[in-house]
Amino acid sequence: YGCFSKLKESIQKSEGGLLNFASGYEKFGLHVNADNSITCLEWAPLAQALFLKGDFNNWNVTSHPFKKLEFGKWEITIPANPDGSCPVRHLSKIKIGVLTAGNVMIDRLSPWAAYVVQPPKSEGLAYQQLVWNPPQEEVYIPKSPRPKRPASLRVYECHVGIATDQYRVGTYKEFATNILPRIAKLGYNAVQVMAVMEHAYYASFGYQVTSFFAASSRYGTPEELKEMVDAAHALGLYVLLDVVHSHASKNTLDGLNEFDGSDSCYFHGGARGTHSLWDSRLFNYS
């Protein structure tokens, strides 16, 4: 309890409270500002340099360097185009170039990526990060209020991908139309959605997560997930997202592993940072 109290006090002092500390996704990663400029903030404590590259700069490796900040943070701001439009288009590909302590340039996806997709087979197996910034008319606006948390939960645990009677991966839209009404009719008042975070290895059932802030693109887009959640709310169903916090995929090209070139960026270094049963990496929570 003494360790907990000390850490909580430290977070209160340096981060402005637990809620602010837990809202890092609002600051980190790539964000489109109100004036259509771009800001990207990353944490890579052992990197020598970071660069943003993608379709927007014809994949120039060094034309858009990040500025080094305190505490291992790196930031870049790209102004809006002269006509006021965003310099990085919706659904365009981006990557972060990381110059490691050993002077090796590696490609990484942002740990805070909001949308990553499986590439065409001709482009390999590593998932690709796409900028998710749809035009306003394509943003899903919820129609139903969130139900009050039930006094007594009756939870239906579900997996969108396997919820069809066919040998294929199901979609958010199909689940909303075909499955949610049946769950509500059976008397459940909550659904627990498994495998909602992006995972490159489908057979892991969603537990070898590669992108913790990206809704799995196998089932549809982020807006279609919002639509599915809204459909659940319309039926009076409380929605729980099954979030995996203890470990992550070992993937480096499309995961968190070795993001800054070291084995200890987000995880414990050495044997302590490996989960032998899951063949995954274990987070260092400090």
Automatic annotation (TrEMBL):
Any one GO BP annotation for this protein: glycogen biosynthetic process
Domain Glycosyl hydrolase family 13 catalytic: 178-251
InterPro entries per UniProt: GH, GH13_cat_dom, Glyco_hydro_13_N, Ig-like_fold, Ig_E-set
CDD domains: E_set_GBE_euk_N
Enzyme type, top EC level: transferase
Keywords recorded for this protein, A-Z: Glycosyltransferase, Transferase
Keyword check for Transferase: yes
UniProt-recorded Gene Ontology molecular function terms: 1,4-alpha-glucan branching enzyme activity; hydrolase activity, hydrolyzing O-glycosyl compounds
Cellular component GO terms held in the UniProt record: cytoplasm
Domain Glycoside hydrolase family 13 N-terminal, residue spans: 27-113
EC numbers: 2.4.1.18
Domain of life, per lineage: Eukaryota
PANTHER family xref list: 1,4-ALPHA-GLUCAN-BRANCHING ENZYME
Name of the molecule in the record: 1,4-alpha-glucan branching enzyme
